[in-house]
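Troubleshooting log. The previous run stalled partway through. Resubmitting the same two chains, unchanged.
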Amino acid sequence: MTSIKLGVIGAGSATFSMGLVKDICVTKGLSGSHISFMDIDEERLDVVGKLAPRYGDQFGSDLTFDTTLNRKDCLMDADFVINTAAVIGHQTQMKIIDVISKHGYYYGRAGVGSAYYNLKLMMDVVRDMEKLCPEAWLIQSGNPVFDGCTLMTRESEMKIIGLCHGHYGVHKVCRQIGIDPEQVTWQAPGLNHNIWLTHFIYKGEDAYPILDEWIRTKGPEFWKDESVTTPPEKGKDVTTIPASEEADPDFVAAAQRKAWDIDLSPAAVNAYRMYGLLPIGDTPRRLSWWEHTDLATKQRWLNKPWGGQDSHVSHPYYVRRLEIRLAEIARLAKDPKADLLKAIGTSKPHEQQIPIIDALVNDNEGRFQVNVPNNGVIKGLPDDVVVEVPAVINKMGVQTYMAGELPRSIMLNMIYPDWIRMERTLHAFKTGDRAMLLWNVLDTHQTQTYDQAIGVLEEAMKIPEYKEMAEYYKWPEKWRSIKL
Amino acid sequence: MTSIKLGVIGAGSATFSMGLVKDICVTKGLSGSHISFMDIDEERLDVVGKLAPRYGDQFGSDLTFDTTLNRKDCLMDADFVINTAAVIGHQTQMKIIDVISKHGYYYGRAGVGSAYYNLKLMMDVVRDMEKLCPEAWLIQSGNPVFDGCTLMTRESEMKIIGLCHGHYGVHKVCRQIGIDPEQVTWQAPGLNHNIWLTHFIYKGEDAYPILDEWIRTKGPEFWKDESVTTPPEKGKDVTTIPASEEADPDFVAAAQRKAWDIDLSPAAVNAYRMYGLLPIGDTPRRLSWWEHTDLATKQRWLNKPWGGQDSHVSHPYYVRRLEIRLAEIARLAKDPKADLLKAIGTSKPHEQQIPIIDALVNDNEGRFQVNVPNNGVIKGLPDDVVVEVPAVINKMGVQTYMAGELPRSIMLNMIYPDWIRMERTLHAFKTGDRAMLLWNVLDTHQTQTYDQAIGVLEEAMKIPEYKEMAEYYKWPEKWRSIKL
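Second attempt completed without errors. Output:
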C-alpha cells in the first residue's frame, strides 16, 4: 500500500476526472493518496473540486484532493502526472472546421490542425516536471499521443507513457460478433490510432473465422442499418436540436454510440480483406482519404446514418452530448444530497491510468496497451519513434513486447506514411517553418490545386485562435525574397 | 590498355548504341574490345549491326562487334553489361495513357505503370549474369533505376551501378544563368530523379547568389516565353503533324528542347524557395501532384507552351522526334557512303558508361554520379536503399561520398515518401498482391473516389500489353472471399 501524489493537468474534464477518482477509490493499494486537479477553466475545475471529496467521503476513502489554477503547484513533488488537456476545445474546433470547409474541404482541417498548441503544452508540462518532480511518471492521456509522446521522449529524460482508448475497440468487435471479451486474448500493435489485430484468440482458438462468419452472414444487414435516426441537414445549428431531443440525453447518447460503431464498418472490413488483419479502435476512422470526401461517402464506409464520428452531423451531436453530460455533472455538484456512488458508479477501473500506477508502485502486475519509444519492438521503425504495443507493467517498470511482425503491406501503406507525417509535424513544430504547413495542406488529398492550399493556409492563419501559431510559423527566407 | 567484352541489352536503341561505339572508340584504353549488341527487335538491331563496324573502320579502331537475339550469347563471359532495355515502348505507353485518361486522369498512368515488366527483365538479366559472367559489372541504364537497382542489389551479389542523365541538368542551369559549366563544381545527392543541389561552386565561390540574381532579373521573362510554337490541340494525332514539320527535324528538336527546359521552371524555383536547394534534372518533373493536373497547370509550373515533357502535346512530339531520328539512322545504315564520323561525331564521352569502365579497368580515375546501395552515405536512409550520389571510381571500385546531409525538410517531404513508394513497388512486384496496386492508384492524388480507382485498375488490367502483369497480380485470399 503506497500513497502517492497524483497531478492531473486538464482536470476540468469532469467525466474524466471523476472516473479517475472512482478508479483510485476502488484501488486499495493507493489509499491515502492525494490528487491535485489543475485546469485553467476555474468554473469547470470548481465542479471537480466539489465532487471529488464528496465522492471520496461517500465511498469511505481516505484520499485527499486539491484544485489549483497554477500548474507548478499541481506538479510540485508529484509521483505521477496525468496530462489530459486539450488547448483548443470542441466548439473552437468546429468553428475552425467551418472556416476551412469554405475552401472546398468536407468537414476537416485540411492539414492545418491545432497540434501546435497541444505539443507546446506537452513540452511545457514536461519541462516543468523536470524541475518540480523529476522522478515522476507522466501518463500522457491527451492527443496527439503519437506525435506528442515521440516529441517528449526525444527531448526529455522523464518517464513517459502515452495512453489511448482505441484498443478497447477489440471488446466492441467481440460483442458485435457475439463472443465474450473476457474469454479473448489479443494483440493490436502499431502506432497510436493505427493499430492492427495481429492476435485474436477466443478460448484458445483463432477467432478470425468467427469474424469471417459474422461478415458473411450478419455484415450486410449491419451495414444497411439506419435505425437510430435521420441526421439533421448540413448547416443546421446543433443548438437547434429540438428540445425533446435535448431533454433526452439517451437519444443523443444512442445516436452518438451509433456514430462510433465503426469497428466493423465497411471501411474496417475493406482494410481487413486488403491486409488480412482488422484495424482496431480509431484506426478505421483514419484509414484513408477516400472515406471522408462527403457525407454520402462517409455513410458508405463508416455506417449509416452518421457516417462515423467526424461528419458535419455526428460531430456536433458528440459535442452536444459532452455539453449535456457536463451540465449533468455540474448539477450533481450543486446538489449536496446527490448519491454520487450511484451517479458515477463504483465499478473496477476501465481506464488504464490508475491500474498502471498501482502496477508501478505496488507491483500489482498487469498487461496494458501503452505508447512508448519503440526500441526494437516493431521491426522497421526507428527506436525513438513512439509505438503503441502491449506491455507488462510491474514495479520494475514497463516491459513492452510484440509477437511477430506487422505484415509488410500494413507497414508500407499505413505505418510508414503515418510515421513520416508525424516527423513532418514535429519538424514543423520545432522549426516554425510555414512551408512545412503548406506541404501538409498540399499533401491533403482533398486539396485540388496549389492556389487552394495557399488560400486555406492563409485564411486559417487569420483565425483568432490560431494567432500565436500564425506568429510562430514563418516562411523561409528564400520564400520571402523570391517572387513567383 | 585492356580489352573487354561489353554486352549491351536493349541495343536496338540505335542512338544510344552508336553513342557507346563512339565513346569506346575515343577511349584508347579500351582498344581491342568487343561489343555484343542484343535486342529482341531484329530490324532495329540490324541497323546497329551495320553501323557499328563501319563507324569503327572509319574511325580506325580495332574494336569488334556482334549482334544477337539471344541474351545468353550477349552475356556469356562479358566483363561489363549495359542494360538499357525498356520492355514497353513509347507508342504503347501512349496507348496506355489514353486508356487511363478516360477514367478522369490527366495524361498519366494513375499509379498503374509498367514497372513490373522492366523489373522482371532486370532480374532475368542479373540472374543470367550470375551464371554466365559472375565477375562482370552491370551498368543499369534503363528505368526504373531507383526501384530496379534497389531490387537487384538486394537479390543478387553482382556488382551493379545505376546511371541516369538527370544530373546533367546542373550544366543546363549553369548555361541558363550564364556561367561556364566547366568552371563549376557541384554535388546533387538524393534518390534517382530526386536529387538536390547541395553544393554549387563557381570559380571557388558559392554560385547560388548568381542563381538568385537570375531569378530576380531574368526569371519572369523566361517564364513568360512562348517562343517555340503553339502546341497542337488535345487529342490531335501526332501522325498528323504537318509534313513540313516532319521534314524539319530541327523544329521538332527545338520544340522538344523547350519542353525539357524545366531546370529553372517555376516548379523548380518554387521548390528552391521552399527548401533552399535547387532540384536537379528530372526532379522538377516529379516534385508534386499539383503541377500535373491539366495542361494549363503544367504550363504554369513547367513552362509554356509545352508544360514540360509529360503533357499530351509534348510527349507525342518527343516520341515523334525519336522516330524521326531512328529513321535518319536507318537511312545512314542503308547508305554505304555515309560519313559516319560526321553524322555521329567523335567528341569525348558525354555519357558516363564508357568512362566508368575505363576507370575500373585502367585506373583512369574519375568523378561520377552513380546509383548504388546507400551504406550510410545519406543519413536517415537504410543501407540497402539505392541512392544517387557522387562517387570516385578507379581500379579499386566505386567509392561513394556526400558532404553533409540533405535538409530535413527535403528528407521528410521528398526523399522518405519516394523511398516508401519504391518499397511498395518492390513489395507488389515480389508478392503479386493486387491490393498493393489498388493502393498505388488510391495514393495517386488525381484519384477522386474509391470506385474510380477500382475502375481504372480493372480496365488497365485488360490492356492487352498488361496481360502477363494482370495474370501475375492477384487479389488477396480474404479479398476474394469477402463481399462488400
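Takeaways: The first helix of chain A runs from residue 14 to 25. Residues 411-479 of chain A form one domain.
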